[in-house]
Amino acid sequence: MADTDTALGTPAERREGREKVTGLARYAAEHTVSGRVHAWPVAATIARGSVRVIDTTGALRLPGVLAVLTHENAPRLADADDPTLAVLQNSRVPHRGWPIALVVAETLEAARAGAAAVRVEYDTQDHDVTLTDSHPGAYVPEEANGGYPGHRERGDPESVFAAAAVRVDARYRVPPLHNHPMEPHAATAHWDDDRLVVHDSSQGATTVRATLAALFRLPEDQVTVVSEHVGGGFGSKGTPRPHVVLAAMAARQTRRPVTVALPRRLLPVLVGHRAPTLHRVRLGSTEQGSLTSLLHEVTTHTSRIKEFVEQAAVPARIMYASPRSLTSHRVVPLDVPSPSWMRAPGEAPGMYALESAMDELAVALGMDPVELRIANEPDTEPDSGKPFSTRHLAECLREGARRFGWAHRDPRPGSRPAGPLLVGSGVAAAMCPVLIWPSTATAQALPDGSFTVRVNATDIGTGARTVLAQVGADALGVPLERVRTEIGNSDLPSAPLAGGSSGTASWGWAVHEACTRLRAGLAEHTGPLLEPGLSASADTAGSADADSGYARHAFGAHFAEVTVDTVTGEVRVRRLLGVYAAGHILNARTARSQFIGGMTMGLGMALTEGSTMDAAFGDFTEADLATYHIPVHADVPAVEAHWIDEDDPHLNPMGSKGIGEIGIVGTAAAIGNAVHHATGIRYRELPLTPDRVLAGLPPFTAR
């Protein structure tokens, strides 16, 4: 057999790359089943109330319009575990943008015209969409997202903070942020008698199948969900969204295959968003920089129909040694769309606030911010007391400082003027939990010497097909080109979703186990291998989800160099550098892409991305890419990603940690800290747009 010692870690090219760049890869809205028609949703135009009258006659008169589904005639669904999926079941309008009708037509254009012709009268109610940290409806939830306790406290942090030699007490604001994947949410559904087949833009077809089966009262084996190619998700496609339910309902009603592709303007209200977070961070330390008290309190919002609490105070339970701490969440139910997952939920906004406060503490102490972080490294995880499986944050900080040239930095704010520009550099740490879920997989050896690995994984642009083939080739001891992967279909062995940076670690464990068993079976096999070949399967339930005696996290360090234009207030990032400790890197090419993608998204969070909730209309003002500004290539001229290859035996057979999210964590704080270093002004609200920056600069800097 060929030498496969380097099967894992090599920069193998994406297997589906050519299909994607040549247009051969088909996405959910591109499956042209014979007789397919299109549907367009009608969204509520009030923030709270109910539909009193809905008149569809004008729409039904239009050429090509086949049907209009409303709460009066739509198929009845079983009770939904997720109330955001109970669409067209009653007249209630819980927030602006809620689907109140669906127009089905022969063409997309006719469906859109039909939707515009639907006339609606409402009974409106007073609404409240404004989040404040003093809102009377705020409460402390029992749990935040991920099952984390809403409130944790150790020691007496309040009194110790009050008596600390050096104190930081700062408030930070992160606005609502929106998932805008390249491929908007779409589904094509058709019924074959009582069998439902759906092509869905989803991060997890197994979950979509289970949900649709429950809603339509079907056995799961009568539902097939295909998510072969998915154009990004960032968490918003982690669970079923209304579009897939609407497509299945319309297909049942019209007895035609139906495609529902959500208009981009509806994504902020129908597929989740990162909820706004109001932070208060208090750090108390000795004059030498040792933390004595750490308090991080977060206020956020949720909708009135589904509780989702951004777990933004959780990172403070993990990052730094402090004998006394308080980390707490407060949530306010408002008449807003339901928030949900967005890349690094909790960690991205939480670490922005914490790492900004750590920079403020370093300035107050006159201490290097890299050394301050290293000085407060914990021996064990502060919250649980468990030992870390590996923790190489200090190494990431030191290696990043070396590569960035941090030693040559003049720590004085405003010390690098360049004409009308002020130049600054900043640093922040990063953390992301290691999540692994049970998965199943099969591996098959064929008579022609090839192998097929089957698992219902989802490739959302991460290169999952390629990496899972590498895992299989490594376990089988064969060249990579002899291993084929089948993913993205709920008829394949069930697997968890691509989310929480858990996909490869979860699927790969099952693939490794199946291939290891197949290799053992082949070693015992005698004679030629006949059709259908030899197979082995694996189910990691009970092992992948077993309690661990270790705290398992990935860590990293971000460094940023920025310029601030004192005339226009514009912030430009000259350099971004990240160094990560994320277990064994399974594919250097796809890993670097993930790290850089996360850092780019963090740059957007820092400088351009932000949404506002219109108090009068109860709607997100920035609802499409014309108003919600994501970074483009010109915004990221130099981005470097490096890593320390860890040997962590407490994870999975590959020794890998998730890498899809840690790139965004800490990037915004590093940029914000660099802006402070450039200007001497501490901005505590994102994004750092020119108007906000210019308003904070003193008059004498404008020259």
Essential attributes:
five-stranded mixed β-sheet; alpha+beta; seven-stranded mixed β-sheet
Task: Give a short summary of the structure.
The chain is of the alpha+beta class and 703 residues long. It has 15 helices and 28 strands.
Structural summary, described in words:
- The protein is built from 15 helices and 28 strands.
- It has a seven-stranded mixed beta sheet. Strands 9-17-16-15-10 form a five-stranded mixed beta sheet.
- The mean pLDDT is 96.
Could you give the order of strands across the largest sheet?
Answer: 3-5-1-14-11-12-13
> Number of DSSP strands?
28
Low-confidence stretches: none
Q: Number of helical runs? A: 15
Overall pLDDT level? 96
Please state the overall shape, judged from the principal axes of the Cα atoms.
Answer: globular
Helices and strands in order:
Blueprint lengths: L16 H6 L14 E7 L5 E7 L1 H5 L3 E6 L21 E2 L5 E7 L2 H10 L1 E6 L18 E2 L3 E2 L1 E4 L2 H6 L3 E9 L11 E7 L2 E6 L4 H11 L7 E4 L15 H13 L3 E4 L5 H4 L6 E9 L5 E13 L21 E10 L12 H19 L3 H7 L17 H12 L12 E2 L2 E13 L6 E6 L5 E4 L9 H13 L6 E4 L16 H22 L9 E6 L13 E13 L5 E11 L6 H20 L5 E2 L4 E2 L18 E5 L23 H13 L10 H7 L7
Parallel strand pairs: 1-14, 12-13, 16-17, 21-22, 25-28
Antiparallel strand pairs: 1-5, 2-4, 2-6, 3-5, 7-8, 9-17, 10-15, 11-12, 11-14, 15-16, 18-19, 19-24, 20-21, 20-23, 24-25, 26-27
Helix pairs in contact: 8-14, 11-12, 13-14
